[in-house]
Every structure is written in structure tokens, then in C-alpha cells.
Amino acid sequence: MKQLFNSFLVLVLSVVLVSSCKKEASQNIITIPSATTLAFKSSVNSVTLTEEVAASKVVTFSFNAPDYGVKVVPTYILQFDVPADTSGTNPWGNAVDVKLSGDSLHKAFLGSELNTILAAQLLLPTGVNSTIVVRLKTDINQQGTGAPTTVKSLYSVVKMTVNPYRSYVEYPALIVKGGNSWKTPTTRTNGYLLASSKFNTKYEGYLNLPNADGWGGDAFQLVSTTDAKVYGWGTSATTLSLNGGGLWLTPAPNYMKVNVDLSAMTIAYTPVRFYISGDDNGWSTTSTPMVYNSTTGVWIASNVTLTAGRTFQFTSNGNYDISYKLDKANKALVFAGAPTWPKDDVVENIPVAKTGVFTVTLDMSGGEGNYTYSVK
Question: Could you tell me if 73 and 94 lie in one domain?
């Protein structure tokens, strides 16, 4: 009888143990939820952006926490893109990613934030309606370690109509920090920066070197607005190094086009003098010079005769190698010279709206992406 009871007890314990193992196993099986359960949505389907709403919340994206059946560590990313980029060999390859913090299930955007994504990063035309798609990408990481898992990403997409505006965008920049006797502003200031309009490692801007020390050149360093890293002299006048000494530029005083590539750790300088070239002067690259005002940081040409229906562009140094036209999509002033020579379906000459005698200004102080002009 005792042996029979012991056998029965072993059987019961075995059943309980197997049941417990099955239960534990079932609790560790990830179940992929349906994308519809996320209920991903935007607070508005259409938004027109202006300077007046730059500091206001214009759209909020929200969704439900996905239920994978087990405890997981989720990460959420909002991806902004145009419909044409969502298929093909590299779908969503040019999307702008915005990572959400922690386990937040919503993200609100100010007008200025959304406008930067649309106009500066997606390069949508300004002042007109465009269609975009916003995709919620959900991934899960291993509990405790945070390491990626092999579980496929979960996606949900919404479509919106947007109308961005043309504005001054604070692109990532390298700030000029003057050395020796050259005193420069301690905060971001136009005229003392190089900008990266494509949000990559390449920066461009125009600097007026004052020759503060009277030695034929000026020394300075470049400070990144992204990570506060300081770049200075490398192994030569055209190379950079982290925390290097002053970049020594000659000849000075001089107005320079400056290009930096942080991937290659190089810097290049080109002395520049601007001109107006167009239909009204037979496209001469020397007959209509502009004068630089070192106080305002603006190039000016006075008493310029222009005719309605004709066009012009800004050239320099007696040729078209450094020249500027309008981007056809957003009408921004963009580089149109060597060696890229953008095609006519991308850039266009600046149109003249009415006939008269004008003052034409060219302001390159904002760095790449924020070059402007006026005809008054």
C-alpha cells in the first residue's frame, strides 16, 4: 500500500511539474500582434505650417502599446518619408527617423520641428501641399540586456497632407572660435559659422577674415554644435584634427568660401568676390560687381538695371565655378557651380519680376542652406 501511494505521489508530482514547465514555456513564447492593434494615428490629417505656429504644437502621433504576450523592452521610431520612397529596392531608405524616448506612446511636434523635417530634411517644396507618409516602427529588445532580438519589426503607417514654409533653419554647424587677437561671438552668430544643410559631415559657409593680428593671416578653431567637439590644425593648412591648434589662414584680410569634410578631416578655402550675371548685362561675369559690407556681412550692388521677364544669377571671380541659382522645388538659393553643375530640371535662374533700377543684396552669412538675396 505504501509503495502504491509513493508511486501515485510521483505520478502527481510529474504531472504538476510537466504542467508547470508547459505554463512557463507558454509564458516565454512571443506572439506577434497585428499592426491594427497599435491604432497608430495622427491628431490631424492635414497641416499648413507658418511662422505663426512655429512655437505651437501642430500634430501629435499616438498609438497603443503592442502586446507580445510576454514582457519585452520596446523601442519606437517615427519615420517620415514621401510615398515614392516607400517601395523599390530600398524602401524607406531616405526616411527621416525620430526616435521616441523610453516607453512613450505619443509624440507631439512643434511647427518649427515638423517644418525642419519637411523642408530641410525631406526637401519638400514650400508654400504648396505635399503628401507624406509617417510610419511607426516597433522593435523589441531582450529583457535586462536591451540587446536586439530576431523578432521582425512591427509597422503601421498613416498618410498626411502637409504644407511647409520657407524659413531660417538652424542646421548643424561648426562655429568659428577666433584665436589670438580675433575676437568672435561666443554664441551661434551668422557670419561666424559653417552649416551642414544635408545633416551630414560636410559643412559650408563664408567667412570674412579680418587679419586681426596684422601678420597676413588669422587663426581660429571650429566648434561643433552637435557634440561640442573642437577642430583645429591637422598636419597641414588643409587638414583638421580634434583639439588641434589654430587654423592659420592666408592671405588675409579676405572673404573666403570655406568647405569642411569631417569624415575626411579636411578644410578648403577659396577667396571669393561676387558679381551679378544675367540677360541684362549679356551674362557678363565681371561688368556688375557687388561690394561687401563688413559691418552687415552682406554683398550689395546698387543701381542695377533689370528687366521684367529676364533672369540672372550670382557668379564669382569672373566665372561660373562658384555660382548660385534657385532650387526649382523650394526657391531657395543654392550652389549651381563646379564640379556638380546641377541640371536645369533641378535649378533655375532668378527671375526678374518687374522693370526698374534696383539694389540687389546677397547674404551668405547664414551658412549653407540659409543663403538669401533681395531685389529692392
Answer: yes
